[in-house]
Amino acid sequence: MVQKITVDFEPIGRRVEATPGQTILAVAQGAGFTLGAGGVYSPCGGKGLCGRCRVRVKGEGLSPLTEAERRVFTPQQIAEGFRLACQAALYAPVKVEIPPESMVGIQKLQVEGIEVEVMPEPPVARYTLTTEQTTIENPRPVWQQVAQRLASDYNLSQLQVDMELARQEPPLAQAKGGTVTVKGREIVNCFFHRPVPPPVGLAVDLGTTKVAGFLVHLETGATLASEGIMNPQIAYGEDVMSRLAYALEDEGQYQRIHQVIIDGLNRLAKDLATRAGLETKDIEEAVIVGNTAMHHLLLRLPIAQLARAPYVAAVTTPVEIKARDLGLSFSPGAYVYLMPVIAGFVGGDHVAMILGSRLDRTDKIVLGLDIGTNTEIVLKYNGRMLSCSCASGPAFEGAHILHGMRAVQGAIQAVRLKDGGTEVELETIADAAPLGICGSGILDAVAELYRTGVIDVHGRLNRQHPRVRVPEGGPAEFLLVPASESGTGEDIVITQKDIGEILLAKAAIATGTELLLKAAGLGVEDIQEVVVAGAFGTHLKVASAVAIGMFPPLPLELFRQVGNAAGTGARAALVSLAERRRAEEIAKQVGYLELMVQPSFQDTFVSSLSLPERSSL
Amino acid sequence: MVQKITVDFEPIGRRVEATPGQTILAVAQGAGFTLGAGGVYSPCGGKGLCGRCRVRVKGEGLSPLTEAERRVFTPQQIAEGFRLACQAALYAPVKVEIPPESMVGIQKLQVEGIEVEVMPEPPVARYTLTTEQTTIENPRPVWQQVAQRLASDYNLSQLQVDMELARQEPPLAQAKGGTVTVKGREIVNCFFHRPVPPPVGLAVDLGTTKVAGFLVHLETGATLASEGIMNPQIAYGEDVMSRLAYALEDEGQYQRIHQVIIDGLNRLAKDLATRAGLETKDIEEAVIVGNTAMHHLLLRLPIAQLARAPYVAAVTTPVEIKARDLGLSFSPGAYVYLMPVIAGFVGGDHVAMILGSRLDRTDKIVLGLDIGTNTEIVLKYNGRMLSCSCASGPAFEGAHILHGMRAVQGAIQAVRLKDGGTEVELETIADAAPLGICGSGILDAVAELYRTGVIDVHGRLNRQHPRVRVPEGGPAEFLLVPASESGTGEDIVITQKDIGEILLAKAAIATGTELLLKAAGLGVEDIQEVVVAGAFGTHLKVASAVAIGMFPPLPLELFRQVGNAAGTGARAALVSLAERRRAEEIAKQVGYLELMVQPSFQDTFVSSLSLPERSSL
C-alpha cells in the first residue's frame, strides 16, 4: 500500500491525507471541500488555463513547475511559493495556504447581526493570457490575440471588445501577456500595461436621504470598504415628491438634480476606492438599488406619471447600462445593474430588502417593513408576497420635529419616564450632552408619554402635568431636557405638533399593515414573524413601536431587526448573477396593493391615528 | 368524399386544392410553399399571436374573424380584406394575396447581374401586442405590460428596454396596444402612438472614395432605395494614408475627420429614407463595411499602428454598437454592425466581398479581386483562403492622370486604336463630348497603345509616332482627342507619366496575384475562375486588363465581373444573422499575406512593371 502523506490546508485548518502524485486540487476536491467548506476555485476545470486556483505552498515535496504555472506567475510569485493547485502534485507533507481569491464557497455577508449566504456566480470573469509581440511578421494586434486565445483555451467565441476600452488601450500586443476581464461575451477591461487590482464592484443603496456604498470583492464577496453619505439631491427637496416636482418644473432642473446624484456617486466611489487603496477606474461592476423615484431620477426616465396619478414607474424591468452612459467614472467597460422595480412607490430597494432578508424563501407568514420617509411593507403568506407603500414621512429622520435631529452624536436615542412622567431618563448617542431627539428617541418618548398617562389615547398632552407647559401663542409641549442640562443651552421639548407627526407616521404604517392583512384574508394573530429593516428599523425599540400601535401587537420575540437588508441585497446581487435572477423573480412575484384605492383606506387611517388601548400592552 | 375547393395564391400565381375548414396557412404549407417558394411567414407557429402571416383575401367563404385578428387589424384593414392565414379557415374558392412582408423564402439580392440567395434571419423582430390602459387601479406602465405579454405569448423573458427609448416613450399604456421591435433580449423600438413603418435597415459600403448606401426591407431583403455619395473625408486626403496622417496630427483633426463621415452617413440615411417615403428614425438596424482605415476612423479607434509599421488594425473582431453612440440618428435603440476586419489593409469590405460573391463556398481555385485605391486580392484554394492588399493607387479613379476624371458623363470609358494607332475610336459615358478619361478608358488606352506598338514593353511612347508629341519641358504625350473634338475645347492627351501611373497600379495588382499563388504553391494555370468585384472592376474591359498584365493571362471566359459584391455582402449581413455568422467565419478563415515582408516582393514588383510579351496575348 502506498504511504499516505498529510496536507494541511490554511486558513480553514483542515488536515487531509493524500496519495503521493495527487494534485492539490484533487486532494482538496477529494476531501469534500465542497461549496461552503472552502473549496478551491477552478473555473477551467483543472486544465491549468484559467490561473485561478492559485495556492501558496510551504515546504518541499511538490512536482516541478509546469509551463502553465510559468505563464501565470511572476518570478516574484514563484519565489514566494505560489503554485496552481491543478498543476502541482504532492510527494511529501506540505502546508497549503488558500488565498481568499482562490476560495470558493457560500459567501457570508455579515451586516449588523444578520448573515446571508450567497451562492457565488460573479458577473465578470478574469483570464490571464499570454500574447506574442505584434510585429509586421506577426501582425496580430492585442484584441485579435486575446479573442483567439479565449476561443481556443476557454471556448469563448463571438467576443466583442468594449469600444471605449478599445479606444483607450494601446493595440500592439507585447510578449509578456496580461489579464482581461470578460462579462458575458464582452471584454470590458484589461491589464496589459499595469498591475492587476483585485476584482471589485460597487453596491449602492440609493436612499432618498442617505446613500450607502459598499466596495466589494467580486469573487469573495468581502466588503473592502463601506460608507454612507447624504443624498445631495436633498438640496432640491427633502422627500421624493418635492424632488419630482422640482425636476418636472423644467428640463434644466431635471438635468441638475440628475447630475448631482451622479456626481455624488462618483465621489462616494472615489472615497471607497481610496480607502481600499484602489481607484474608481478599478470598479468593474456596480449594482444600485433605490426607490422608484431615485431610480428614475438617476436614469433620467419620464417622471410626470410618477408624481401624479396613476403614480406609476416608467420602467420596472431590471436595467443594465454602461456606467459611462450614466456619467459614472468606473472601469472603461463597467456596467451598472439596477434592480427591477415593483411599482411607483415600491422600488428596487424593496426588492433588495426582500432578497437581502431572504423573505422570499420563508414558509412562515411574515410581515416585512422597511421604514423610511416612505415605508414599504411586504406580507409573505402561502407562497405569495403582497407589498404596499405608506407615506410615513420624514419624522423619524428628525424632520418636522421641533427639536428633531438625525441619529448622530448628541441625539437622544432612548427615553424612559419615571414617576408618572415627572422624571426623565435619557440615553444619547456617544453619551454626549443632548442636542436634540432622533427617530428612536421620539418614538420612545411618545410611547412613554402614553404609558405614563402624560398623553391620552388621541395623543393630547395633559396640560396639568408638571412638565407640560403652554408657551404663549404656541402649542403645548413636554419639557424633556431643561436648558441647564442640554448641550445647546436651550430647553429640549416635545410639542403637541411633534406628537401629531409621530401619530401620522405610525398611522400610515399601521394602515398599510392592516390593509395588507385584509387583502390577504389574514388577521394580526396569523403573523409568525415581523422583519424590520432599515437603519431606523434597526435602532428603534420594538416595544415602543408596538406600544404606540406602529407595529402590530405581537410578542416581542416574533420581531427580527435585520439592519440594512436592502444594502445586503444589493451586495448579494453585485457578486452573484444567481442573486439577480432571484431578484427578478421576486419583482415578478410581488403583488402591489395600492392603498389609496382601497375602500377602507380612509377609515382605517383615521382610526389608526389613535393610540391603542393600554390594555393591549 | 369532401368536395375540394380551389385557392389561388398571388402574386406567386399558384392554384392549390384545399379541404374545406383548412386554414390558409395549412393550405400554403401543405402545398409545399417552403423556403424559396414563397411560403407564408409565421414565427409564432400559427397561434395567432405574432400577427405576421397577414394575407388579403378576395371573395367570400372564410371563417369569421377571430379575436386574435380583431386585435391585430385596424377596422380599415378588416374592411380591405386582411386576415391572418393561421386563423382564417376556407369554405369556398378564394383568391389569397400574400403581401411581401408576409412572404418567406430565400431572398434574391439582385445587383448588377449577379444574384445572391440569402437565408432570412432578420436581426430584429416585431410583435404586435394589446395593452390595457394604465390607471391607478391597473397601475402597469407600458413597458411592464409589453414585457409581460412578450413573456407569456412569445416566451421572451428577461427583456430590457433600450434606455433612450424608455426616455422618449410616454410610459402610460393605452387601451389600443401597438407594435414593438425586439433585438435579442432588448426592446429597441416601439409604435404605440404612431403608424408602423416597414422594418428597414441601412447597408453601407464605406469606401475611401465612394460611400454606397442601401435602404433595405429587413424581412423581405428588398432594396427600397440606393445611392452613392462621395466620402466627405476626401477633403482631408485622397487616400487612406493621407487621411490617417491628418487624423494623427492632433486629436481635434481626428475628431473632425471622424465627424464628417458621421455627418455624411446621416445625410445619406436621410436621403435614402426620404426617397422611400420614410424618416431616418425609421432605420432600425445598420451594417457598415469598409476598409480598415475607414472602419477605424468611423469608430475613433487608435490608428498610429495602422499608419506605421506594423500596419495593424486595433480591433478586428466584429463590432456591434448603438447607432446613437456613433452620433447616427437612426431609431432610438438601433444598432450598427461593423463587419470583422482581417488585417491592417484587408478590411470588412473584403470580408463582405467574399460573402457577397459567395467565394467562400466554391470548390474551385478562385482568384478574387476588389480593385480600388487599395486592391484586395483573395485566393481560394483547397478549402483555404489567403488574402493580400496591394497599394494600387487612385489612378483608376482618374486621379494622378493628367486628363483623368471619374466615371461620370463625358468620361471616355472605352478606347480602340486603328491603323497602328493613328486613328482613335472612343466611347464616352452618355455619349457626351469627351471631357477626360476614366479608369476603364485609360486601361483600354494603354492596352491599345501597346497592341498597336505606340508604346514598347516598358511603356515608353514612340516619339516618331504621328500622334505622339513632346511639349516643351514636359513629358511625351499621345494625342487622344484634339481640342476641336473635345468637350473642354482643349486637347485630351495621355502622357508618359500617365502610362507610368497605370503601370505602377497594374504592377501592384500583378505582384499581389503572383505572391499569393507562390505562397499557395500554385501556378497561374491552376486558377479556375477570376472574380472581379467593385465598380471599376465591373466596367473595365477584362481583355485590356489581361493585355497589360494586370490580370493573369487566362481565357476571358474564366473571368466573372460581379459588381459591388461588398455592398451585396453588406446587404446580406443586414437582413440575416446567419450571414453575419458566416462573415465572422470568413474573417477567421482568411489568412493574411503581408506582401512587404515577402523576400521576392521587390523583384516581383519590378518585373511586373514591364508589359507582358505580346506573344502571350
Widest sheet, order of strands of chain A: 14-13-12-15-17-16
Greatest contact pair? A-B, 47 and 47 residues
Structural class category of chain A: alpha/beta
Percent helix among the residues of chain A? 25-40%
Tell me what portion of residues of chain A adopts beta-strand conformation.
15-25%
Description:
Among the domains of chain A are: 98 residues, Ubiquitin-like (UB roll); 67 residues; 147 residues, Domain of unknown function (DUF4445) (Nucleotidyltransferase, domain 5, 2-Layer Sandwich), CATH 3.30.420.480. In chain A, the strands form 7 sheets. Chain A has a 6-stranded mixed β-sheet with strand order 14-13-12-15-17-16, sandwiched between helices. The first copy, chain A, has a 6-stranded mixed β-sheet with strand order 28-27-18-19-20-29, sandwiched between helices. A 5-stranded mixed β-sheet of chain A has the order 2-1-5-3-4. With 617 residues, the first copy, chain A, is an alpha/beta fold. The first copy, chain A, contains 17 helices and 29 strands. Chains A and B meet through helix 4, strand 9, helix 5 and strand 16 of A and helix 4, strand 9, helix 5 and strand 16 of B. Chains A, B: InterPro entries: 2Fe-2S_ferredoxin-like_sf, 2Fe-2S_ferredoxin-type, Beta-grasp_dom_sf, Corrinoid_activation_enz, Raco-like_middle, Raco-like_middle_sf, RACo_C.
Describe the secondary structure blueprint for this structure.
Two copies of one chain form a homodimer.
Chain A lengths: L4 E6 L3 E5 L5 H7 L23 E5 L8 H6 L2 H5 L2 E3 L9 E4 L9 E5 L2 E5 L6 E5 L12 H13 L5 E2 L1 H6 L9 E6 L2 E6 L8 E7 L3 E8 L5 E8 L9 H10 L1 H25 L7 E8 L1 H8 L4 H4 L11 E4 L12 E4 L9 H10 L8 E5 L4 E7 L2 E7 L20 E8 L4 E6 L7 E2 L1 H13 L16 E2 L7 E5 L10 E4 H25 L8 E5 L1 H5 L2 H6 L11 E5 L1 H11 L1 H13 E3 L8 H8 L9
